[in-house]
Amino acid sequence: MRVLGIETSCDETGVALFDTEQGLLSDALHSQVAMHAEYGGVVPELASRDHTRRLLPLIQRVLDEAGIRRQGLDAIAYTAGPGLVGALMVGASTAHGMARALDLPVLGVHHMEGHLLAPMLEDNPPAFPFVALLVSGGHTQLVEVSGIGQYRLLGESVDDAAGEAFDKAAKMLDLDYPGGPAVARLAAAGDPQRWRFPRPMTDRPGLDFSFSGLKTHTLTTIRQLDQQDALDEQARADVARAFEEAVADTLAIKCRRALDATGLSRLVVAGGVSANQRLRERLERETAKRGAEVFYPRGRFCTDNGAMIAYAGAQRLLAGERDVIGRMQAVPRWPLEQLRQP
Ligand code: ATP
Ligand code: MG
Ligand code: FE
């Protein structure tokens, strides 16, 4: 079965073609990062308009690259939520329109289920069950995954998401949006010994996260340096490094606890922050120590993409799930635990 996947939940237009026998056939992405950069964050109305402009040409490109005509498709999957409602509606209405015209089944996919299953597109995919750490721009969650749609929330952030914390730290350091990669680049030149930033909520049991205290600590440090006229390039790099170490360490401590609590030995890390090299090194050490294994998506499938939506949609379509014809879904808030086994 050949499934076209469409992702438009935020600021990337992603399209991909997944074949349940042959795997991923093609994928393409248009990122709106440059467009939103001058505003320092995503402007919802601009996002929707840009998805409208980019989506059809991107679909054509993916079909051309795979050498497949529209008539060769078997189903269409799109991101139904969570996300920006106007942006979601562009993907949802396009998917439903195409499905109607081509007389195909169509299915709305949960964006975080897409992220969570993205490592399944790699050569050595994780087997169920596993613990998933979802770390993206809007989510920081630990989930026990027993199978597709079988998700038990173990813990989550009580305030900012990890990606959001990176983006805010970047702003404090006058770095460009999106902040994650920029902070990581600056941190590479930083001295890890200069400061030890707080590891929030690691001093008590539990699997929840909090990043607002770390954010305040980062801001206070920057202000003090600035007042002392000591905020030079090295100091900025040292702050970035101390911040990155604190996030990576906090996430690793909670992952270790989640593996302990569930007795599982496979860890999946997905979402934009899973691209972070320091976090990967830290998690590799943590899992190696206990004979566990860690799995990630390839770099470009850590952030939003069409491939993860095509894959997640294909699994559910194979199980017989589909939208009612003419009833597109665009759900801005949608907890992952509400999903069911197909
Ligand atoms: P959600 O998936 O929760 O709806 P989103 O789709 O906006 O949110 P993603 O596209 O998965 O999030 O990830 C984007 C986030 O990942 C941004 O906050 C960005 O700063 C962060 N990020 C990307 N690369 C890195 C990196 N190398 N290090 C740290 N953070 C990163
Ligand atoms: Mg994005
Ligand atoms: Fe995302």
From TrEMBL:
<comment type="similarity">
    <text>Belongs to the KAE1 / TsaD family.</text>
</comment>
<keyword id="KW-0808">Transferase</keyword>
<keyword id="KW-0012">Acyltransferase</keyword>
<keyword id="KW-0408">Iron</keyword>
<dbReference type="InterPro" id="IPR017861">
    <property type="entry name" value="KAE1/TsaD"/>
</dbReference>
<dbReference type="InterPro" id="IPR000905">
    <property type="entry name" value="Gcp-like_dom"/>
</dbReference>
<dbReference type="Pfam" id="PF00814">
    <property type="entry name" value="TsaD"/>
</dbReference>
<feature type="binding site">
    <location>
        <position position="167"/>
    </location>
    <ligand>
        <name>substrate</name>
    </ligand>
</feature>
<protein>
    <recommendedName>
        <fullName>tRNA N6-adenosine threonylcarbamoyltransferase</fullName>
        <ecNumber>2.3.1.234</ecNumber>
    </recommendedName>
</protein>
<dbReference type="GO" id="GO:0005737">
    <property type="term" value="C:cytoplasm"/>
</dbReference>
<feature type="domain" description="Gcp-like">
    <location>
        <begin position="24"/>
        <end position="311"/>
    </location>
</feature>
<dbReference type="GO" id="GO:0005506">
    <property type="term" value="F:iron ion binding"/>
</dbReference>
<dbReference type="InterPro" id="IPR043129">
    <property type="entry name" value="ATPase_NBD"/>
</dbReference>
<feature type="binding site">
    <location>
        <position position="115"/>
    </location>
    <ligand>
        <name>Fe cation</name>
    </ligand>
</feature>
<feature type="binding site">
    <location>
        <position position="111"/>
    </location>
    <ligand>
        <name>Fe cation</name>
    </ligand>
</feature>
<dbReference type="GO" id="GO:0061711">
    <property type="term" value="F:tRNA N(6)-L-threonylcarbamoyladenine synthase activity"/>
</dbReference>
<keyword id="KW-0819">tRNA processing</keyword>
<feature type="binding site">
    <location>
        <position position="276"/>
    </location>
    <ligand>
        <name>substrate</name>
    </ligand>
</feature>
<feature type="binding site">
    <location>
        <position position="304"/>
    </location>
    <ligand>
        <name>Fe cation</name>
    </ligand>
</feature>
<feature type="binding site">
    <location>
        <position position="180"/>
    </location>
    <ligand>
        <name>substrate</name>
    </ligand>
</feature>
<keyword id="KW-0479">Metal-binding</keyword>
<dbReference type="GO" id="GO:0002949">
    <property type="term" value="P:tRNA threonylcarbamoyladenosine modification"/>
</dbReference>
<keyword id="KW-0963">Cytoplasm</keyword>
<feature type="binding site">
    <location>
        <begin position="134"/>
        <end position="138"/>
    </location>
    <ligand>
        <name>substrate</name>
    </ligand>
</feature>
<comment type="function">
    <text>Required for the formation of a threonylcarbamoyl group on adenosine at position 37 (t(6)A37) in tRNAs that read codons beginning with adenine. Is involved in the transfer of the threonylcarbamoyl moiety of threonylcarbamoyl-AMP (TC-AMP) to the N6 group of A37, together with TsaE and TsaB. TsaD likely plays a direct catalytic role in this reaction.</text>
</comment>
<dbReference type="InterPro" id="IPR022450">
    <property type="entry name" value="TsaD"/>
</dbReference>
